[in-house]
Amino acid sequence: xxxxxxxxxxxxxxxxxxxxxxxxxxxxxxxxxxxxxxxxxxxxxxxxxxxxxxxxxxxxxxxxxxxxxxxxxxxxxxxxxxxxxxxxxxxxxxxxxxxxxxxxxxxxxxxxxxxxxxxxxxxxxxxxxxxxxxxxxxxxxxxxxxxxxxxxxxxxxx
Length: 158
Prior knowledge:
The protein is mainly α. It has helices at 6-21, 23-26, 39-56, 63-72, 90-105, 110-118, 131-148, and strands at residues 32-34, 37-38. It has a single domain (6-148), classed as Hypothetical protein af1432 (Orthogonal Bundle), CATH 1.10.3210.10.
């Protein structure tokens, strides 16, 4: 795997630490997201990939919102492989659940809310409002494909 660009890990370290220390965020490690990758590992990969995309393409971003939104975009805290009485299809409903969970645990700004709620676009109908939301959505799709095809995580925690 390629190493993150020098500024990428610094950006991640600067804004992800608080979330990674949170017992609530650590619960994501109890749920498998794609193949054998947990939700927490997936979110860490998406956050790193988002930083790499913004840096490589020289896109000015709110770094805190980018990393925090990426880290919380799949904060739904359930096993999506089991229906367990949930209504609707996971792909369409989990952004709202993740946002509700994140709002219970953390104070979020408008960019972070938009990232979480709209990261599944175009599957979900309303497009992202901010460049950070587009970046996290793209990073999520890249990481999801790699994980599903068992190509590994982009920036794994293992």
